[in-house]
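Risk register update: the risk of archive-format incompatibility is retired. Evidence:
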Amino acid sequence: MVTKVKPWTNIPTEAQLVERFTGKAFKVMLARNKRGIDVEVFAAGALEQGKVFLRDVGKPRRKTIAATPQDPDWLKSQRMEAAIDFVRGLQEAFHQATGKPVPYTASHHNKGPFVRIAAECVELIGAQVDVVEVINELERRSNIKNKRLGHETRGEARKRERDEARKKKSAARNPGNTVR
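Archived output:
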Protein backbone atom coordinates (compact mmCIF):
# COMPACT_ATOMS: atom_id res chain seq x y z
CA MET A 1 0.00 0.00 0.00
CA VAL A 2 1.40 3.37 -1.01
CA THR A 3 0.55 6.23 1.29
CA LYS A 4 -0.20 9.60 -0.19
CA VAL A 5 2.02 12.41 0.94
CA LYS A 6 0.81 15.96 1.37
CA PRO A 7 2.57 18.13 -1.20
CA TRP A 8 4.90 20.81 0.02
CA THR A 9 3.37 24.15 -0.69
CA ASN A 10 6.58 25.93 -1.58
CA ILE A 11 8.03 23.49 -4.15
CA PRO A 12 8.64 25.51 -7.32
CA THR A 13 7.65 24.52 -10.82
CA GLU A 14 10.36 23.64 -13.30
CA ALA A 15 10.07 27.06 -14.94
CA GLN A 16 10.50 28.78 -11.57
CA LEU A 17 13.47 26.54 -10.85
CA VAL A 18 15.18 27.54 -14.11
CA GLU A 19 14.55 31.20 -13.32
CA ARG A 20 15.96 30.86 -9.79
CA PHE A 21 19.12 28.96 -10.75
CA THR A 22 19.98 31.07 -13.79
CA GLY A 23 19.17 34.48 -12.34
CA LYS A 24 21.70 37.15 -11.53
CA ALA A 25 20.96 37.02 -7.78
CA PHE A 26 21.95 33.33 -7.67
CA LYS A 27 25.21 33.97 -9.50
CA VAL A 28 26.05 36.90 -7.23
CA MET A 29 25.39 34.70 -4.18
CA LEU A 30 27.80 32.06 -5.52
CA ALA A 31 30.55 34.58 -6.21
CA ARG A 32 30.06 36.17 -2.80
CA ASN A 33 30.34 32.85 -0.94
CA LYS A 34 33.22 31.23 -2.84
CA ARG A 35 35.96 32.98 -4.78
CA GLY A 36 37.25 31.11 -7.78
CA ILE A 37 34.06 29.15 -8.39
CA ASP A 38 33.01 28.61 -11.99
CA VAL A 39 29.55 30.08 -11.57
CA GLU A 40 28.14 28.77 -14.85
CA VAL A 41 29.27 25.18 -14.20
CA PHE A 42 27.85 25.17 -10.67
CA ALA A 43 24.59 26.84 -11.73
CA ALA A 44 24.08 24.24 -14.48
CA GLY A 45 24.79 21.39 -12.05
CA ALA A 46 22.49 22.86 -9.40
CA LEU A 47 19.69 23.29 -11.93
CA GLU A 48 20.08 19.71 -13.12
CA GLN A 49 19.98 18.42 -9.53
CA GLY A 50 16.97 20.64 -8.81
CA LYS A 51 15.05 18.99 -11.64
CA VAL A 52 15.95 15.56 -10.25
CA PHE A 53 14.74 16.71 -6.82
CA LEU A 54 11.38 17.78 -8.28
CA ARG A 55 11.05 14.37 -9.92
CA ASP A 56 12.00 12.44 -6.77
CA VAL A 57 9.81 14.35 -4.31
CA GLY A 58 6.63 12.96 -5.83
CA LYS A 59 7.75 9.33 -6.00
CA PRO A 60 6.24 6.75 -3.66
CA ARG A 61 8.38 5.88 -0.66
CA ARG A 62 11.04 3.26 -1.28
CA LYS A 63 10.82 0.02 0.68
CA THR A 64 13.63 -1.06 2.97
CA ILE A 65 14.30 -4.21 4.94
CA ALA A 66 15.82 -2.37 7.89
CA ALA A 67 13.72 -2.68 11.02
CA THR A 68 14.80 0.37 13.00
CA PRO A 69 16.32 3.81 12.36
CA GLN A 70 19.58 2.53 13.91
CA ASP A 71 20.04 0.07 11.03
CA PRO A 72 22.37 1.38 8.31
CA ASP A 73 19.88 0.51 5.55
CA TRP A 74 17.12 2.61 7.09
CA LEU A 75 15.80 5.17 4.63
CA LYS A 76 14.37 8.48 5.68
CA SER A 77 11.20 9.97 4.21
CA GLN A 78 11.06 10.33 0.44
CA ARG A 79 11.37 14.10 0.80
CA MET A 80 14.47 13.80 2.96
CA GLU A 81 15.96 11.21 0.60
CA ALA A 82 15.30 13.55 -2.34
CA ALA A 83 17.00 16.39 -0.44
CA ILE A 84 19.97 14.14 0.40
CA ASP A 85 20.33 13.21 -3.27
CA PHE A 86 20.07 16.90 -4.21
CA VAL A 87 22.89 17.87 -1.81
CA ARG A 88 25.01 14.95 -3.06
CA GLY A 89 24.59 16.34 -6.58
CA LEU A 90 25.50 19.82 -5.35
CA GLN A 91 28.69 18.38 -3.88
CA GLU A 92 29.61 16.99 -7.29
CA ALA A 93 28.77 20.29 -9.02
CA PHE A 94 30.79 22.23 -6.43
CA HIS A 95 33.78 19.96 -6.99
CA GLN A 96 33.52 20.40 -10.77
CA ALA A 97 33.15 24.17 -10.45
CA THR A 98 36.03 24.71 -8.00
CA GLY A 99 38.31 21.74 -8.56
CA LYS A 100 38.53 21.34 -4.78
CA PRO A 101 37.00 18.60 -2.64
CA VAL A 102 33.87 19.35 -0.67
CA PRO A 103 34.06 19.17 3.13
CA TYR A 104 32.89 15.80 4.43
CA THR A 105 31.13 17.16 7.50
CA ALA A 106 29.48 20.41 8.51
CA SER A 107 28.80 22.36 11.68
CA HIS A 108 26.15 24.87 12.64
CA HIS A 109 28.77 26.98 14.39
CA ASN A 110 31.23 27.41 11.53
CA LYS A 111 29.52 27.20 8.15
CA GLY A 112 31.92 27.11 5.24
CA PRO A 113 31.26 28.35 1.70
CA PHE A 114 29.75 25.08 0.49
CA VAL A 115 27.32 24.86 3.41
CA ARG A 116 26.16 28.45 2.83
CA ILE A 117 25.72 27.85 -0.91
CA ALA A 118 23.94 24.53 -0.34
CA ALA A 119 21.59 26.16 2.19
CA GLU A 120 20.66 28.82 -0.38
CA CYS A 121 20.08 26.15 -3.05
CA VAL A 122 17.94 24.03 -0.73
CA GLU A 123 15.88 27.10 0.05
CA LEU A 124 15.47 27.82 -3.68
CA ILE A 125 14.03 24.37 -4.35
CA GLY A 126 11.71 24.66 -1.40
CA ALA A 127 13.02 21.71 0.60
CA GLN A 128 12.53 22.16 4.31
CA VAL A 129 15.66 20.40 5.56
CA ASP A 130 18.73 21.26 7.60
CA VAL A 131 21.72 21.25 5.21
CA VAL A 132 24.20 20.53 8.01
CA GLU A 133 22.21 17.43 8.97
CA VAL A 134 22.08 16.29 5.33
CA ILE A 135 25.85 16.70 4.80
CA ASN A 136 26.60 14.80 7.99
CA GLU A 137 24.14 12.07 6.97
CA LEU A 138 26.01 11.68 3.67
CA GLU A 139 29.28 11.24 5.58
CA ARG A 140 27.66 8.71 7.93
CA ARG A 141 26.42 6.67 4.97
CA SER A 142 29.83 6.86 3.32
CA ASN A 143 31.50 5.55 6.47
CA ILE A 144 29.01 2.67 6.74
CA LYS A 145 29.60 1.74 3.10
CA ASN A 146 33.40 1.86 3.49
CA LYS A 147 33.29 -0.31 6.62
CA ARG A 148 31.11 -2.88 4.85
CA LEU A 149 33.58 -3.01 1.98
CA GLY A 150 36.49 -3.27 4.39
CA HIS A 151 37.92 0.10 3.39
CA GLU A 152 39.24 2.82 5.62
CA THR A 153 36.78 5.57 6.45
CA ARG A 154 37.84 9.12 5.64
CA GLY A 155 38.23 9.87 9.33
CA GLU A 156 40.49 6.85 9.81
CA ALA A 157 42.55 7.83 6.76
CA ARG A 158 43.00 11.39 8.05
CA LYS A 159 44.07 10.06 11.45
CA ARG A 160 46.57 7.65 9.88
CA GLU A 161 48.04 10.42 7.68
CA ARG A 162 48.28 12.77 10.65
CA ASP A 163 50.08 10.11 12.71
CA GLU A 164 52.52 9.40 9.87
CA ALA A 165 53.27 13.11 9.49
CA ARG A 166 53.94 13.40 13.24
CA LYS A 167 56.33 10.46 13.12
CA LYS A 168 58.24 11.99 10.19
CA LYS A 169 58.41 15.35 11.93
CA SER A 170 59.63 13.73 15.14
CA ALA A 171 62.26 11.69 13.26
CA ALA A 172 63.50 14.85 11.50
CA ARG A 173 63.90 16.66 14.84
CA ASN A 174 65.66 13.75 16.57
CA PRO A 175 67.65 11.85 13.92
CA GLY A 176 69.56 9.77 16.51
CA ASN A 177 66.42 8.43 18.21
CA THR A 178 65.23 5.86 15.73
CA VAL A 179 63.19 2.87 16.78
CA ARG A 180 64.74 -0.49 15.87
